Amino acid sequence: MKLFGYGFLLLVVFSGIVFAQERQQKIFTATVDQDGVQRISMTGGEYFFEPNHIIVKVNMPVELSVKKTSGFVPHNIIIDAPEAGIEVNQNIGKDPVIIKFTPQKTGRYPFYCDKRFLFFKDHRARGMEGVIEVIE
After folding, report:
1. pLDDT in tens, 52-111
2. pTM
3. Pairing of strands 53-57, 27-29
4. 53: Cβ contacts below 8 Å, ≥ 6 apart
5. How far apart are CA 33 and CA 85, in angstroms?
């Protein structure tokens, strides 16, 4: 029975690897709500973020709602851009998490998932990344 258990575990792990597909760029341009906040909904899943290119305006508050698709693989979202006032390191789950920030500098800032399983490539290397583009 142990052999079956290990075989099943390997099947689950490798199914994500085999069926992970390269995703096209999904661009989302945030609009400013009546209350002056730019709201974006994002989903993270088996080695993707959707949308994976977000355009927001500088010096206007952003609320990024992030959740993950179903599955057992843990994910997070990291945005390391302190020069722009954006510093995020948040685990994501099936329930949406609201991340708030106000971008203070125009530019392109990457976001990604840095989770990894054992000795495999981390999720960013497998395509779970994107960019926040801050414009005037």
Report:
1. 999 999 999 999 999 999 988 999 999 999 999 999 999 999 999 999 999 999 999 999
2. 0.80
3. parallel
4. 25, 26, 27, 28, 130, 131, 133
5. 21
